[in-house]
Amino acid sequence: MPLLEIVASKKITATVTLEESTAKQVDQYAAMTKASADDVIDSALAYVFGKDTEFKKWCTDNPTFKASFPLRLKRPAPSTGTKPSTSPAR
User: Fold this and answer.
1) Residue 18 pLDDT exceeds 70
2) Is the pLDDT score of 80 beyond 90?
3) Can you give the C-alpha Rg of the chain in angstroms?
4) Residue 3 and residue 59: Cα distance in Å, rounded?
5) Cα separation of 55 and 38, whole Å?
6) How far apart are CA 60 and CA 81, in angstroms?
7) Which of 50, 32, 29, 48 is nearest to 40 (CA)?
8) Which has the closest alpha carbon to 17: 71, 79, 78, 83?
9) What is the pLDDT of residue 63?
10) At what angle do helices 53-61 and 37-51 cross, to 10 degrees?
11) How many CB atoms lie within 10 A of CB 38?
12) Taking 80 as the threshold, does the pLDDT of residue 33 lie above it?
């Protein structure tokens, strides 16, 4: 039985760098659990954060902490407010 329960939820897109061996294991775990690699990474981090009592205490003691090198988030493309044309080209 897998250690992680994969549950999909609202996501953001971020860029991270992994060791090649870690990336391979993420893909293998995703295949085993029939989940996406993104869901495996999210669940693994949530599991670790939930189990790490020292980290929980640190978060409580530092509620306004701002990371020096925050996670690199991919910003969504701005919406133009118009729908693409579905009429045939002339």
Assistant:
1) yes
2) no
3) 19
4) 25
5) 22
6) 41
7) 29
8) 71
9) 92
10) 80
11) 15
12) yes
